[in-house]
């Protein structure tokens, strides 16, 4: 293009583009060597929350038989009652749901030998399995049926005691050790003993209701198989004053047997449980005594008990009687 000649629109656009490219190149040369600021790096993600703790399983070997007769089995590696039943069931190739309850050192239906929350390190475990199912019709003639209920810690409530001369005592087909499976065809499997006792207490007087019961299987000609197995110290801590304490929550622990105060206080609390709630439960009574033995006043005791057994919603009058019983034993008044 000659000087003085008019610039065409196309030439004007080209010149503008060249000027913009030159300006951009100048800016890049001025900023060369500079680093644009960036945001600081994000912190690493938080690790996932830890899962439930792995409770150690004590390596203690126990001998076991079915109460109606069986070879002797060996079990270990359990930390609560449900796991204990599963181990026994595995040894004898039965379902854990077949086991009604266990007794210690006796194949008989002896409620004084009932396995609760503690097993002596030399104890022999007898498992009582489901036997005959029966249905009985009951009519309440008084407020109390005369039953004391307990449970096996794995969903089965059963009869621990029958009061002489009571409504239930007159029904000779009902026996100590019978599992209460249903009330009026309503299954109560999975209910705790205090829930079952409450249901029975709420049955109206004069109106018949039905109990479906399952008795433990009875022995016939297999008594000779119930010999005590030779003692084995494999994996055991040999100390006659120690027991394996089973817990519904947490690890099983080996601990000293109860001292005289704890034993007497536990028996008194168990008596109060029967009086107020119609149940017997030495493990529950032991937990109550443990919550109260070091407390200075009933308010602290009630708070401690609520933290470990809040689901029971014990009435205040029961708590005060328990507090009084623990104090009486502690001070030598019993």
Please tell me about this protein's structure.
The protein has about 325 residues and is α+β, with helices and mostly antiparallel strands. The chain is about 30% helix and about 20% strand. The chain has helices spanning about 10-30, 80-90, 195-200, 260-275, 280-290, 300-310, 315-330; strands at about 60-65, 75, 100-105, 120, 125-140, 145-150, 155-160, 180-185, 185, 210-215, 240-245, 255. Strands 1, 2, 3, 5, 8, 9 and 10 form a 7-stranded mixed sheet that branches. Strands 4-11-12 form a 3-stranded antiparallel sheet, with no helix packed on it. A two-stranded antiparallel sheet has the order 6-7.
Question: What's this, in brief?
Answer:
With 334 residues, this protein is of the alpha+beta class. It has seven helices and twelve strands.
Structural class: alpha+beta
Shape: globular
Estimate the mean pLDDT confidence: 79
Measured as a percent range, the helix fraction is 25-40%
Biggest pleated-sheet summary? 7 strands, mixed
Q: What's the total number of strands?
A: 12
Order of helices and strands, N to C?
HEEHEEEEEEEHEEEHHHH
Q: Give unreliable regions as ranges.
A: 1-10, 221-240
């Amino acid at each position: 293009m000659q000087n003085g000649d008019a610039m065409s629109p196309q030439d004007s656009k080209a010149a503008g583009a060249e000027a913009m490219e030159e300006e951009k190149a100048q800016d890049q040369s001025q900023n060369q060597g500079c680093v644009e600021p960036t945001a600081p790096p994000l912190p690493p993600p938080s690790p996932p929350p830890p899962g439930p703790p792995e409770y150690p399983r004590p390596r203690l070997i126990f001998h076991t038989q079915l109460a109606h007769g069986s070879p002797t089995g060996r079990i270990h590696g359990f930390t609560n009652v449900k796991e204990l039943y599963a181990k026994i069931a595995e040894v004898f190739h039965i379902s854990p749901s077949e086991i009604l309850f266990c007794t210690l050192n006796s194949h008989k239906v002896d409620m004084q030998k009932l396995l609760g929350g503690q097993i002596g390190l030399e104890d022999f475990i007898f498992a009582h399995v489901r036997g005959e199912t029966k249905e009985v019709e009951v009519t309440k003639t008084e407020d109390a049926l005369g039953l004391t209920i307990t449970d096996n810690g794995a969903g089965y409530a059963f009869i621990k005691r029958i009061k002489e001369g009571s409504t239930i005592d007159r029904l000779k087909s009902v026996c100590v050790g019978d599992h209460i499976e249903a009330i009026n065809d309503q299954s109560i499997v999975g209910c705790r003993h205090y829930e079952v006792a409450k249901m029975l207490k709420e049955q109206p007087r004069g109106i018949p209701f039905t109990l479906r019961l399952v008795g433990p299987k009875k022995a016939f000609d297999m008594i000779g198989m119930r010999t005590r197995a030779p003692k084995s110290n494999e994996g055991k801590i040999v100390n006659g004053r120690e027991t394996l304490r089973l817990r519904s929550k947490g690890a099983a622990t080996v601990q000293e047997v109860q001292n005289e105060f704890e034993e007497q206080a536990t028996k008194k609390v168990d008596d109060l449980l029967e009086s107020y709630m119609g149940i017997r439960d030495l493990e529950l009574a032991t937990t109550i005594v443990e919550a109260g033995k070091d407390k200075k006043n009933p308010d602290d005791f009630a708070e401690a008990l609520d933290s470990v057994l809040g689901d029971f919603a014990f009435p205040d009058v029961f708590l005060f009687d328990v507090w009084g019983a623990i104090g009486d034993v502690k001070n030598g008044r019993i």
